[in-house]
Design brief:
Blueprint lengths: L2 E3 L2 E2 L6 H7 L1 H11 L4 E2 L5 E3 L4 E5 L8 E4 L6 E7 L5 E6 L4 H13 L11 E7 L7 H14 L5 E8 L4 E4 L2 E4 L4 E4 L5 E5 L7 H9 L5 E2 L1 E2 L4 E4 L18 H8 L10 H14 L13 E5 L5 E3 L1 H5 L1
Parallel strand pairs: 1-10, 3-14, 4-6, 5-15, 9-10
Antiparallel strand pairs: 1-2, 5-8, 6-13, 7-8, 7-9, 11-12, 13-14, 16-17, 17-18, 18-19
Helix pairs in contact: 1-2, 3-4, 5-7
Length: 311
């Protein structure tokens, strides 16, 4: 079975406008969602998900209270929750391989919910995109909806704050109303959020995406570990060119939505490039071909295992 809205099967749609016209309750839910205050999430309870990453866990996890992601312009943030087990997954999707990514999200939640299926359902929350000039957001919205429609599982769409319903005009410029979301692992509540901390291993994880890495699961909930890598990339000294360019040039060529990016976008790109120039080959970052592993320390920070730091 495909996507359901208020227990009614969603037929094939050709535009997000058509979706919101057919299901006005989605409009009301989106308006209510974006009207909530934006929460600044404490890093000591957070599992942060970057672009082309996802993470899943259950309410029994003592290491994570909130999974979150932000800095989404044309990107979409996808939250999937199993109402029986409370297992929840959050992904940051950019359209790189949507139809292959969505089944990974389903599997991550259902694998944590094997004993809790009776009387339960899978609930979906979509947030992201805006009315950008190239309609990149609209295209991604339709891809994600279509990917969920073709699944065998019943998926109940609860929140759909995407594209035109996530659009706001500031000084005659269209931008997303909501750039980031968090999901409370204990309660399942999804809320607008921002995250000052985007680690652990922020630059390393960004480098993977920058060099073409596909969607990846970053969290082992059974052990409470963030797993980073191993990944490979090839040396590319030519990217040093971008460090000499004006911010406007970097925005123009590195973003799908130059006028809508958050203020730190250019700094983020430069930091990632500097990391790749410092580490032109990824092998030394993963001794023995093993991932970098991070656990929650007593003071609440994600901390790399000491044995790895000594190697």
């Amino acid at each position: 079975m495909p996507l359901l809205i208020q227990n009614i099967r969603v037929e094939r749609i050709t535009s997000t406008g058509e979706l919101f016209d057919k299901y006005p309750n989605l409009q009301e839910n989106a308006k209510a969602f974006r009207s909530q205050p934006i929460s600044n999430v404490d890093p000591k309870c957070l599992l942060y998900v970057q672009q082309r990453e996802f993470a899943a866990t259950t309410p029994a996890d003592n290491n994570v209270s909130v999974i979150g992601s932000d800095d989404a312009t044309t990107c979409h943030l996808v939250v999937l929750r199993h109402t029986g087990s409370g297992a929840v997954c959050l992904a940051h999707c950019d359209g790189s391989n949507t139809f292959a990514e969505v089944p990974l999200l389903i599997k991550s939640v259902t694998s944590l919910s094997a004993c809790c299926n009776e009387g339960s359902r899978l609930e979906l929350h979509l947030v992201g995109g805006f009315k950008d000039d190239t309609m990149t957001s609209h295209e991604l919205s339709l891809k994600i909806l279509a990917a969920f429609q073709q699944l065998k599982d019943d998926i109940h769409l609860q929140t759909c704050c995407i594209t035109e319903m996530n659009d706001v005009v500031v000084n005659a410029v269209h931008k997303p109303a909501v750039y980031g979301v968090g999901v409370n692992v204990k309660t399942g509540k999804v809320f607008p959020a921002t995250f000052p901390y985007k680690g652990p291993a922020e630059d390393l994880r960004s480098a993977r995406t920058f060099t073409g890495g596909q969607m990846v699961d970053i969290y082992d909930s059974s052990r409470g570990l963030v797993e980073v890598g191993p990944w490979k990339w090839s040396p590319n000294m030519e990217i040093a060119f971008w460090l000499s360019q004006d911010d406007a040039v970097i925005l123009q060529y590195m973003s799908t939505s130059p006028k809508a990016e958050p203020p730190h976008f250019v700094h983020h790109i430069k930091s990632t490039i500097q990391f790749l120039l410092k580490h032109p080959n990824s092998d030394r970052l993963f001794p023995g071909g093993q991932p970098q592993l991070y656990h929650r320390s007593e003071n609440g920070d994600w901390e790399r295992f000491a044995s790895q730091l000594d190697s």
